[in-house]
Amino acid sequence: MNDLLINKTNAFFKEKFGDAPEKVVLSPGRINIIGEHIDYNDGYVLPAAIDKIICFAFAKNNSKQSKIVAIDLNEEFEVDLTKTISLSKVVWSNYILGVIKQLQDNGFSFDGFNCVFSSNIPVGSGLSSSAALECGTIFGIKELFNLSIPKVDIALMGQKAEHWVGINCGIMDQFSSVMGLENKVIKIDCKTLEYEYHNADFNDYSLILFDSNVKHSLFSSAYNTRREECEEGLSIIKSNFPGITSFRDCTEIHVLQLKDKMTPNVFVRCHYVVKEIHRVALACEALDKGDIEALGKLLFETHEGLSKEYLVSCDELDFIVDTLKKEEAVIGSRLMGGGFGGCTINLIKKGEEEAIKSKLTKLYKEAFDIELKIYDVKIGNGTSLYNRN
Ligand code: GAF
């Protein structure tokens, strides 16, 4: 599947700029097994890179200007590297401008380059196409100009670029895009950025994504508000329990004891966060033991929390999860990513996938008059150079 994308990107570069690219970079989207809205709350998350990617072709152009082409959108922009970088009206270009700014602000020196890219990561589906764009661009510039940038710093600069664009995101998306490994999920400690790989073996179950094919505009404003509500809750917790420095030090009991000191919204957000951090630990144990049914139950619980307490779901996502919950062959399902649309992640008994897919597609269409999209993703490697041999 990705060979076509890589060939197309290479051919486009050659046609546009006359020569073959010097570097070809592949940068993946991500899934998240569990630990949603937990990265910016200093907990643990369990994401993985996937085999849906952005392919970039790069070459130096011996100038101080860079030209970047989005093949799929048939759009391009130029950036003068000698001038101060500022936000553009073209949304996608801001992620690239953001990482160029980050590299410059961090003292990395590089000259002009040409870049074209093409993607098979669905946009707006919660699979982090923006993180793939940020990390792939940094990686390409690093390779082109021999810059020494540790992988984790690529992720951190990508995250800062996203903040510059306007979403005050955590580190999960960029970290998993850069650090992904085939058939492994990554348990990331979002406080220390320590991480460990666990085998992504779901035994008798298939991991399938159902894309609601909606993206409600509430996303960015609500995302930033959730972050503020959690910060407010944590400061109340800290002032009442001096030993606690972050949510990971809390139990549910701490939060329950402070119910009267918090607004109702802040209380339910904190309650969700503390329970979700605990679920990530249980999910890792379940995965390591091969107890995929236990993992599945945790996914359903996460959805319940995201929908009823964290309030980042929507009718379409709730419909998908509620419908699947009635199916014996589905042992887990939840919204994945920031919410307000995008995908659900689902564990479905092997052999039953096609029946579930067609039943859900029909019911979803009847309920919302929207086509459900379906992705059978594989867990893949993080951002890397494409080796032509
Ligand atoms: C978005 C953000 F970019 C991530 O940092 C993370 O918070 C996620 O939503 C929710 O878990 O993808």
* Oligomer type: single chain
Radius of gyration: 21 Å
Shape: globular
**How many helical stretches?**
11
Sheet having the most strands: 6 strands, mixed
Could you state the order of secondary-structure elements as H and E?
HEEEEEHEHHHEEEHHHHHEEHEE
| CATH architecture term of the largest domain | 2-Layer Sandwich
* Helix-and-strand structural type: alpha+beta
Q: Tell me the number of structural domains.
A: 2
How much beta, percentage-wise? 15-25%
Under CATH, the topology of the largest domain is which? Ribosomal Protein S5, domain 2
Unreliable spans are: none
Helix content, binned percent: 40-55%
- For the record, what CATH class of the largest domain applies? Alpha Beta
User: Strand order across the biggest sheet?
Assistant: 5-4-6-3-1-13
What's the short story on this structure?
The chain is an alpha+beta fold.
Structure description:
The structure is a single chain. By secondary structure, the chain is of the alpha+beta class. It folds into two domains: 2-201 and 380-385, 2-Layer Sandwich (Ribosomal Protein S5, domain 2), CATH 3.30.230; 205-377, Alpha-Beta Plaits (2-Layer Sandwich), CATH 3.30.70. Helix content is 43%, strand content 22%. It is built from eleven helices and 13 strands. It has helices spanning 2-17, 91-105, 129-144, 151-165, 172-179, 219-240, 252-257, 264-289, 292-308, 315-325, 353-368, and strands spanning 23-32, 44-45, 47-60, 65-70, 75-80, 113-119, 184-189, 195-199, 205-215, 330-335, 341-349, 373-375, 384-385. The strands form three sheets. Strands 5-4-6-3-1-13 form a six-stranded mixed beta sheet, with helices on both faces. A four-stranded antiparallel beta sheet has the order 10-11-9-12. The chain has a three-stranded antiparallel beta sheet with strand order 2-7-8, sandwiched between helices. Helix 6 crosses helix 8 and helix 8 runs antiparallel to helix 9. The longest helix has 26 residues, at 264-289. The protein is globular. The model has no long low-confidence stretch (mean pLDDT 97). It binds 2-deoxy-2-fluoro-alpha-D-galactopyranose. Residues 36-37, 39-40, 128, 169-170, 172-173, 337-338 line the site of 2-deoxy-2-fluoro-alpha-D-galactopyranose (GAF). Residues 285-365 form the GHMP kinase C-terminal domain. One of its GO terms (biological process) is galactose metabolic process. This is Galactokinase. Belongs to the GHMP kinase family. GalK subfamily. Keywords: ATP-binding, Carbohydrate metabolism, Cytoplasm, Galactose metabolism, Kinase, Magnesium, Metal-binding, Nucleotide-binding, Transferase.
